[in-house]
Amino acid sequence: xxxxxxxxLAAAGNAIADPASALAAVANAxxxxxxxxxxxxxxxxLLAGGLPRRLRRDLVAAYLGFPFFxxxxxxxxxxxxxxELDEIKVDRISPEDCSALTSxxxxxxxxxxxxxxxxxxxxxxxxHDYLWGRLHGAERLIDLVVSSLPAKARPDAxxxxxxxxxxxxxxxxxxxxxxxxxxxxxxxxxxxxxx
Length: 195
What we know:
By secondary structure, this protein is mainly α. Helices cover 62% and strands 0% of the residues. The termini are far apart.
């Protein structure tokens, strides 16, 4: 980006009396339309260069989403009460994000039946959902902690699997005596965790 020529600065100097002309003069002097076109072309060239799909999606979302982000955030910054904005990462804990024990079931909670009232009708369903909630919670919390580590400090897939299995075994051992109406679920978990 280069500074505008002196003539454009003179037009910008009249910003109080004629702000529209001043803005047009500065935009013209800085070649903002050309800058937009060059930026768009650079993004297209980058995306056509064989980037992985997820990275392409993130770049496009950030590039196209910036004006909306800017419109939403600018009023918060403009009043001077906020100095900087830090990215806040959001993670969820959901059965849909858990895959370590898919061989033992648990992907669909029993309470989801009957418009989410299924567990009201059966102690076994409540026990099932309670146990799977603990297992899914443990898996996601382990994954969240691991994802926050520097890349070099993260365990490899085999060690991560063993960390998860140790947590799962501890949960099943702690609940075994109390969850008496789901012996098939406990047996399936024992089999999956013995592998």
